[in-house]
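We emphasize that the prediction below concerns an isolated chain of 182 residues; any contacts that depend on oligomerization or on bound cofactors are therefore not represented. The input was used exactly as deposited, without trimming of termini.
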Amino acid sequence: MNVRIFFFCFFASFSLLAKPDTATSTLTLSLQDCISIALQQSAKIQEAEAIVEEYKGRLQEVQSLYYPKLKILSYISPMFQVTGSALQADVERDYSSWGPYYHLEAILAQPLYSFGRISAGENAAKERMLVEKARVREAKNMVALEVSKMYYLYLYAKSIYPALQSADETLQKAIDKADELY
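Result of the prediction step, given as a C-alpha cell string:
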C-alpha cells in the first residue's frame, strides 16, 4: 500500500471528524474525489509513466540505427620534416626541423542490412513499451483500489462510532457501579 495514500486518507478522516468552526469550512469528499486526488498525486503512477517515457526513448534510439552515421577522427601532433616520396626508398628525415602534423579521418556509414537486429530491437522496444503502459494502468487501478478500501473503512468506522460511544458509556456506568458496590 502506498504510504502517502494511507496518510492522506488517515488525516482526511480526522479532518472530517473534527468539528468545524463555521459551516463553510466543512470539506466533504466523495469516493471519486478521493480517487482523483490520489491518482494525481501518486508516486507509483508517476514512476510507471516515467518508465514508459524511458522505453519511448529506447525505441527512438533503436529507430535511429537506420540513420547514416558520421564518425570523425582528427588530431594534430609534432612531426619532423620528411622529404622524398613515400613510395620509394629515398625518404630523408630531418630531425632538426619540426612542424605540425595534421590528420583528419571521416567515415560515413549507412547500414544496408542488419540481419534483423534492428527490426527485432524495434519490436522488442515496442512490446516493452506496451507492457509498461499496462503497468501504468495496473498502478492506477491499484491506487484506486487502495483508496476505495480506505474510504469504505472510514465510512465503516464513522458508522460504528455511535455504537462504540454507547458501549463505552454503558461500560463506564458498569465500572462506576462496580466501584461503588465493591
